[in-house]
Write a structure and sequence with these properties.
With 481 residues, the chain is α+β, with helices and mostly antiparallel strands. Helix content is 23%, strand content 29%. Strand 8, helix 4 and strand 9 form a beta-alpha-beta unit. This is N-acetyltransferase domain-containing protein.
Amino acid sequence: MVVDLLAEDDDALLQQPGRQLVVDHEERSLGGVGAHDPTVRHPGTSPKAVLPQADPLSAGRDAGGPAEIGCRARGPVAQTVPVTTTPTVRPLTADDLEQSVALGIEAFGAIPDGMPRPTREGFPGPGRLWWGAFDGERLAGRMLRREYHSWWHGQELPTSGIAGVAVSPEERGRGLLRELFRAVLDASVERGDVVSTLYPTAPGIYRSSGYEVVTTLQTVEVPTAELTRVRPPVGVRTRRATAADLPAARALYDVWARAQNGPLTRRGPSFPATDEDVIGDFTGVTLAVDESDAVVGYCSWNRGRGYGPEGRIEVQDLLATTAEGYRALWRLLGSFASVAVRVTVQTSGDDLARSVLPTLSWTAIESHPYMLRLLDVPAAFTALPARARGTVVLRVHQDAVSGTDGSYRLTASEDGVTCERTDPEGDHPTFTPGGLALLWSGAQTCANVRMAGLLTGGTAEDDAVLDAVCAGRPLHVRDYF
């Protein structure tokens, strides 16, 4: 998560690079977990409220989370002096940890009680690379790149997850964020990342760096008593999962995630948890199984505190590949109606889990927009499946931090899509980086991107080809970083 501490008005947000802080938590999910860190966002609370609790199966939890926040000050926090020279941007090392912690305290405040102090030995953590902007020896800004893969158009694409951003107050508006993005995204392209994503609290800051909101991660609340009215499943029952069941649950997640645009693959260095770790992080992981004992759904849940009006069940993943699987899982959650009046579920988009509910009760209590930008335009379009036929030349302009500006020839055929740089003349569809992210992700059509002022030029025929090529999958996310 990126928490932005900036000017209040939108115009200022658009003009100032600002200062941000991430509350990261390690990836304890069906795909694995990072190094242990007891900081996990409590569903339904403010993004700034970080409570110790079991790690979510779906919401990411970063290694060394306290280093992102800072730590409880022991002595004076380092004084900040405005940058007076061109900053030096480089990867952070363990020698920079104390300055990074101080910057985190300055932006976010003291680390909550019960969280361990960050150590040099745990820095930077698996799948993570910190970058800093220095004025001489003084750290004036920082940014974290997370190593991920995510599902887009049926393909696993290398993904640069941006988090942990903080800039000292005196440097707001001085261009440090832009310099950090240039360095971090250059490193991401060198690694082979095709897209970059982040969770902002002020999207306007990141639009100038080519990002645009394509979906939203939400926590929703459903009255537990209403779940008792879900129709009983036919041929499906529930049982408690053990560590031996985790491979089957991961396989079900893969089936679901591959059919969407946006979900992390939950593989790689950011997800190194063992099956035992994952099971131990929840009150329960419940499977929905059919008559042959094949897994057709699962939910990972924690029993919140209390059994009165404040009692609740907190669900991190609720996924199924059949309607009967969803019914079985909802009814299991409804069985808590006498002791927990609410169920909270982490979700996004138009969740199919809702299709079997008998009432309209589905209240969003927390929302986190998810932003995307393309880093490698040819690779991003080449990943698209064959959905249409035609050739379009498109242009990208106003990319201030990465090298996507220029013209591209896109050819769609029955064999798939090819995309390569070109240098044509004439009137062609011209996208801002954010406009291209909206189209490519399937979040918006060319017509809507034009209405937003993020696409000009080209013809109706160009728009038809681009719409057909980029359509096809709903947008969903489940992991918060």
